[in-house]
Fold these 4 entries.
Entry 1:
Amino acid sequence: MTAIEVESSIEQKLHDLCEAIAADAEVREAREQAEAFLADADAVALYREMARANHEFEERHHSGERISDAEASRFATLRQQAESNELIRNFIGAQGVLQTVADTVNGFVTKTLEKGRIPTHDEVFAKSGGCGSGCGCH
């Protein structure tokens, strides 16, 4: 088989995989939820404000900077507003679904290239060492 034939064969299989992913009901629902969130400017603004406040809060906390009661209260209020927003909750869930699909595909492809064969589920998702997964050391 020539390099062009292998590329065409792999490309066709990738096309088939992408077609299956796009047709998957759970993936389609997750995309619809993400799109509904992104179409709502108020939900997006609240999510961004919450994310920005969370990042700032964590940075200040880790640097040992004191957080006033008023700042902590504002942050808690923002978090409660974000958590009670159905579009934001659905968006976060949708992100999880889509990330899981991406991690699964990437994990199997990466392990296949490493091992030269189709890996088992345990080989792809086994936790090893103390550093966690995704670091590239295992």
Entry 2:
Amino acid sequence: MPFYLKEYKIEDYENLHLEATNWKCQIKKLTEGKLFDLLCTYEKLAHKIYQDILDVDLSEHFNCPESLTSIIYYNKDEGYHGEHTDYGLFNIVLNDDSENCMYYEDNGEWKLFDAKNKMIIMNGDAVREYGLKAVKHKVEKPAGFERYIATKICYPRNKKEELESKVNWL
């Protein structure tokens, strides 16, 4: 188990199954604590990078109520997360030591992220309005292997209605 998860009990996680992507896992939503603070620090840095790249002010979207900070746990028996893009401006992922998160390249090939024990920042669907592409990705986890990730999906402020139609578990 990664060090940043030691303060959270697996009994406090909720079951999550999204039919559209055949996604089965457990989730622990975070609103405080060391890990939440760490992800907010990374989010602030990512906002600065995106503001510089896009030449727009994104400050109103920083840690807004629509954003989701969570830990996702895939148990030893299941844990597939089908092909998808994330809604939002970007998604910050703190990956564990697994090597099973794949991204889709424009040439039609799936490639492994070089993400073992690293942080990834992936473009979400909302960056399309700025001319960027969202990152299509998936997780294929072998049986008998646990996987934890900490994630902060940075949704645009005031998009609650649009969010609820896409993700019914917020």
Entry 3:
Amino acid sequence: LDLSGFPGRLVLFTDAGCRRCDQAKAVLAAAAAEYTEAAFDREPERLHAAGITAVPLLVGRDATGTEVGRIAGRLGRRSLARLLARMG
């Protein structure tokens, strides 16, 4: 994935009407995790160009911007906690 044009250390890729995307946002909100959202319904060309092919997809980066993990599909509290720990 080429995520160079997406700001933030935690990026959630979504689409309108996606139930798992809504669930992922709820998990992130419950954890008070700050994230950037990029949505297919708002910028499909940009997401396709970055290599995003399915949603929801949550990508975590460390302080240097290096990807340290991703979660595709259903987002759970434990998997989010592990990703946040890897982010440092």
Entry 4:
Amino acid sequence: MSLQDQLTADFYSILADQDGPARIAIVQGRPVSVVVDQPGITGVDPSSGLMLSRMNLYILSSDLGFSPVVGSQVVLDGVKWTVEIPSPHGDGVLQLGLLRYTA
């Protein structure tokens, strides 16, 4: 097994383990286990003047309940985010690049 394969398998285990380091969040109205990577990327969109926030959300595909596409909406803990980059992150895990604009 390659290192990448092992890391992906570990990530699946982290999300599937109810007692692990992942946190419970309300996604699309359901409590699910997630890992939220918030690198603090927040800035101002020069074309609109609005604040732009980005983050990555890691979630089990089965917990999300739909196949996200670019532009679809995900509600995370009551806040609407737009899917910017949906990508598989190994078997059963999705990495969603999310963004939102605020005034």
